[in-house]
Amino acid sequence: AASLEHWLQPHLAGLSSVRALQSLPLHTLLIGALTWEQRRLLDRLAPETVSVPSGSKIHVDYADPETPSLAVRLQEMFGLQETPKVLGGAVPLTLHLLSPARRPVQVTKDLASFWKEGYADVRKELRGRYKKHYWPEDPFEAVATSKTKKGMSREHKSML
Does 78 have pLDDT greater than 90? Predict the structure, then answer.
């Protein structure tokens, strides 16, 4: 706010309505006002994406800055022992674990506890509904995947 004239004022020229002001890409303008060092620090502490065990990069939702979240298919998290964290490891992400159809099946900040206590029931329920998908008994040792059994490589299939 103290430096509005530097990063916002140049973009206000010619705007004549609140609607036009609301259409400004504020996120882009704010990021553009950061120094290279500040941008690197921001990327390290509050990354836009998190890599999950399947290899996918999943967008982090910071809509509620107190509880940033990650919506990810359950099979893409197999093998991960702990909940991913941001802010230098200080803030665990709220995980919205999704079915293969991308419907929420569990919300947790404690992935290890979910694997130990809740996964068996979720597996039982979803295994019948999503037969083409991988539902291992031990999610700690399982290979994460973003594919169905048919789409998995031979190497992954041999681990089933």
Answer: yes
